[in-house]
Amino acid sequence: MVKEYFEKIKELGIGKLVLIFFAGVLLVLSATMDNGTEKEKVSVTVPEQPAYNNDTQLTVSIENILAKIQGVQRVSVCITYEDTGERVLVSSKDTEMQKVIQQDAEGGSRTEENQSILEEYLYQGESPYVVMEKKPKICGVLVVYEGDKSVMSDISEAVKVLTGVDYNKIKVLSMN
Q: How far is Cα 148 from Cα 72, in angstroms, rounded to an integer?
């Protein structure tokens, strides 16, 4: 069987074998060459809700925790946000460059360069494919509570721990 294989190779001749080899090399090179399409992560802010809308789950969670502090009877929390957050989407970019050099009869020349970029996002059903999502940045927290005034600093500290917001962005007030 191996002998028959080598006999067929000898029948082809060295010229045809070299052509087949170079055709294979060209095929491999063309498959690995960059065709100008790049897959990259693009950061896009997707405004789904207004910046003043708070995350009710976080608000309720903070209210429940603060209500458990000794000396607090009732509590209400309001969180404001700086932005709506950010989603990182996967996109495909296709860049095309075109350069045209024109020369006139007097020896002058003019160069014109055109670049076009086509960017498409990868979709998962009806919505874009999200690689990573960043939560909105908290701008400030207002806490209004009814209870002992000596727990004000404890409330501020608890809000700082729960949200990561600095003390200068937290305001704690007692109810009437």
A: 6
Q: What is the pLDDT of residues 146-171, one digit of tens each?
A: 999 999 999 999 999 999 999 999 99
Q: Is residue 46 exposed (0-12), middle (13-18) or buried (19+ Cβ within 10 Å)? A: middle
Answer whether 132's CB lies under 8 Å from 86's CB: no
What is the residue type of 37? T
The answer to whether 61 and 84 are in contact (CB under 8 A) is: no
Question: What does pTM read for this prediction?
Answer: 0.51
- The one-letter amino acid at 91: S
Inter-helix orientation angle 152-163/56-66, to 10°:
140
**DSSP code of 152?**
H
Q: Are the C-beta atoms of 66 and 143 separated by less than 8 Å?
A: yes
Q: Which residue has the tokens 């429940």?
A: 64
Residue 72 contacts by C-beta under 8 Å, 6 or more apart in sequence?
66, 145, 146, 147, 148, 151, 155
C-alpha angle 73-60-142 in degrees, rounded to nearest 5: 70
Asked if 79 contacts 138 with a C-beta cutoff of 8 angstroms, the reply is yes
CB 156 within 8 A of CB 127: no
